[in-house]
Design brief:
single chain, alpha/beta, 11 helices, 51% helix, globular
Amino acid sequence: MKSSSKIWITVSTLSILMTIVLVYGFIVAVQDIVNPSGDTAFIPEQKEPAVTSPPIEQNKEIKIAAIGDSLAKGTGDDEGKGFVRRVVSMLQEDGKEVKVTANLAINGLTAEKLLPQLDEAGVKYTLQQSNMILLSIGANDLFKGAQAYQSAESDIPDTAELYKILPKASSSLKEVLKKIAEINPDAQIIYMGLYNPFSDLKDLKQIGNAVVTAWNSKALELINTYDQMALVSTFDLFENNVPELLASDHFHPNAQGYEEMAERIVEVLGITDQHGKKVETDDE
């Protein structure tokens, strides 16, 4: 009997101890869930990755996106380079790592029609992945009437008619520049100023020069409100050299015309080579 009593006492004691251990373990587990004691300082906060590019001077590689009309596309260049590929070649020759992320230019595009394209996800992504944006827009806004006159489809437009186009077209340009700057506030944005492709035609020289000068003046005013933008002047390049610099359509530049535009872009950029010296073009 005494032996049986000892056994029961031992079993009961062990059961009580096991119960205490289980209850303690449960309490500890609940405390860890409610008030975790681990060090959360090393758990990184999850954030959306930044998509904007740092300034060009801090980058080893220059990533160029082109957008706008047929001039940005390179129409008229029988070598198929346009000013975009020529800028790339000039910078590469001076030791820069350069690539074109995409050329989004479309023949016949106006500033007004460019606006909705800047809301497209693919266009925005391309611009965000670039640290230099080359923009050409406005020629189709101003010169539709002149092109029709040249092909004998309509009468020559007068100065008043062309000036009526300016307010709406420049307003569209303003929105284009604003949108691009919002899409990528850190990219260097280079806008190509307009030239008068009809400066060698008596009926269109004075009218064309006047409206192009007014457009470029307004464009410069808009661009000067942004630190990361610059206007590349092309008016003087073509003013007295239209026959030599235009393609057979008498509107778009030829290979030599695009070459001179590219040289002017590099000059405006003021980019330095790998030795810290300013990139120079042949005519400097």
